[in-house]
Write a structure and sequence with these properties.
alpha+beta; 3 domains; four-stranded mixed sheet; 4 helices; binds calcium ion
């Protein structure tokens, strides 16, 4: 029964003609103000990317490109909406991602962002939180930093983000971070911590939680590799990773050897798929 279910899932997914390596992974909407937001995602292969958005699901036609330009290609993607577009406050926007010219509409539901209200008072000037991100001995530009703040009473802020610069630095001003419901600026209490997640796509990830006083500057952050076999970069190995690897093994998708090569022979083939399937269903191959 289990076996036939797997075969059925494989058949359904293999019959899709689109390329999974362009599919947006870890899509996040951050930096929401009354008139801007950022939407970011990663892809397994180097892709072009832009968004289409509109204030109604039936009219998603406005285009915004990656902030690095319309000709940018890469595996981390970051679009800032509202700097050159006019967005209304407290308004819901519907967003589709276009990756390598394929439209991804979140399974028909679209990605959704509701802008915040206009806060009448200006933000109190806050500390800059800043630091550097590395991959091994080199800086890791293009890594997307996500950060939120947590007070000792467990109230948390909205999530803000920043793309690591060519120099390796990131910087976020703590003063303009809003509360989670976007209704006001977040008031730091004594003992506030910052929770950081670094998304480097196939270059890896890392996370850090520390007192906010330790974020000016933050300790250097080194990207660590995703677990071998975790092809959808969700920090776990399951059957959806096996399907991705199978597609690579039979050349429906671009192989990602760095993550998918289970037996470390520098190629992706069906023996890797079998090893990953065993891992995914809990038949450990260790020992
Ligand atoms: Ca996974
Ligand atoms: Ca292999």
């Amino acid at each position: 029964m289990k076996k036939s279910l797997f075969l059925y899932i494989f058949f359904i997914l293999l019959s899709r003609i689109y390329c999974f390596s362009a599919a947006p992974l870890d899509v996040r909407i951050t930096n929401i103000t009354n008139n801007t937001f950022a939407i970011s995602w990663v892809t397994l292969s180097s892709c072009t990317g832009y968004i289409k958005y509109g204030s109604s699901p039936s009219n998603i036609s406005n285009v915004v490109y990656d902030f690095r330009g319309s000709s940018y290609t890469g595996s981390t993607h970051y679009v800032i909406c509202g700097e050159e577009q006019f967005l209304e406050s407290e308004t819901t926007y519907y967003i589709d991602i276009v990756s390598n010219d394929i439209i991804y509409n979140n399974g028909g539901n679209h990605y959704i962002c509701t802008t915040g209200k206009i806060i009448s008072s200006p933000p109190t000037p806050g500390n800059n939180l800043y630091g550097m991100v590395f991959k091994d001995a080199n800086v890791a530009p293009g890594t997307i930093m996500y950060l939120y703040l947590r007070n000792p009473d467990n109230t948390v802020s909205q999530v803000v983000s920043y793309v690591v610069e060519d120099s390796g630095w990131w910087v976020i001003n703590a003063g303009s971070i809003r509360t989670q419901d976007l209704q006001n600026y977040f008031q730091l209490e004594t003992g506030c911590t910052g929770v950081v997640f670094c998304q480097g796509g196939i270059d890896g990830w890392n996370e850090l939680e520390t007192g906010i006083e330790n974020l000016s500057p933050a300790p250097d952050i080194f990207l660590q590799n995703y677990e071998t076999g975790d092809l959808n970069l969700d920090r776990g190995v399951d059957i959806s990773d096996v399907i991705l690897l199978l597609r690579m093994a039979i050349q429906l998708d671009e192989p990602v050897v760095a993550i998918g090569d289970m037996n470390e022979d520098s190629v992706i083939d069906i023996s890797d798929v079998i090893l990953l399937l065993r891992k995914a269903i809990g038949l450990s191959d260790e020992g």
